[in-house]
Amino acid sequence: MGVSGSGKSTVGSLAARALDCRFLEGDSFHDPAAIAKMQGGVPLSDEDRWPWLDRIAAAAGQAIADDGRVVIACSALRRAYRDRLRSAIPGTTRFVMLDNSREEILQRLTARSHEFMPVSLLDSQFAVLERPAADEPATILLSNVRPDALCTQILGWMGSVQSAG
Ligand SMILES: Nc1ncnc2c1ncn2[C@@H]1O[C@H](COP(=O)(O)OP(=O)(O)O)[C@@H](O)[C@H]1O
Ligand SMILES: O=C(O)[C@H](O)[C@@H](O)[C@H](O)[C@H](O)COP(=O)(O)O
């Protein structure tokens, strides 16, 4: 999870490969109206996001039924969105927030081309972002190191929380 450009797709796909499971790209679950809205420079509302989160959760449930686990890249900016995912996805859902400064992310987004997400929406993403609280099953990683190093940190964190029970 994290704002647009925080590295979710890059790091999530690496983690899925390392965990030998499917990777779900949250971007692929938006409906055409939501895509048009973002393309037009308008941030999504809660009402736009609930059905999107439900579609992601349904796909995750299917992947878990098939393979036992799944990695998802999803902005999941607000706690309510994460709670919705947790209640709809079977088993234990854990969140990794990729954190970085607005300046660094802006630089990365400016260098990246995206099918529908304009760089101009970055500030709205930071405005909505609620960092995971201490009572959420989550960790926050500073994404100022290479993607493979972040992947190693994620696997290490998952191993430590699993063995802690
Ligand atoms: N740890 C990293 N270090 C440097 N660049 C990164 C890192 N993670 C991602 N990037 C780059 O930043 C841009 C945004 O990453 P991306 O994975 O598309 O983010 P998101 O899926 O969160 O929108 C991409 O161009 C990607 O190559
Ligand atoms: O909740 C939202 O506002 C969107 O999901 C948004 O957060 C997401 O960032 C876009 O789909 C672009 O995708 P990237 O996050 O991969 O740039």
Automatic annotation (TrEMBL):
One of its GO terms (molecular function) is ATP binding. Keywords: ATP-binding, Kinase, Nucleotide-binding, Transferase. Its EC number is 2.7.1.12. One of its GO terms (biological process) is carbohydrate metabolic process. It catalyses: D-gluconate + ATP = 6-phospho-D-gluconate + ADP + H(+). Pathway: Carbohydrate acid metabolism. InterPro entries: P-loop_NTPase, Therm_gnt_kin. Gene3D superfamilies: P-loop containing nucleotide triphosphate hydrolases (3.40.50.300). It holds the Pfam family AAA_33. One of its GO terms (cellular component) is cytoplasm. Belongs to the gluconokinase GntK/GntV family. PANTHER family: GLUCONOKINASE-RELATED. This is Gluconokinase. The lineage of its organism: Bacteria, Pseudomonadati, Pseudomonadota, Alphaproteobacteria, Sphingomonadales.
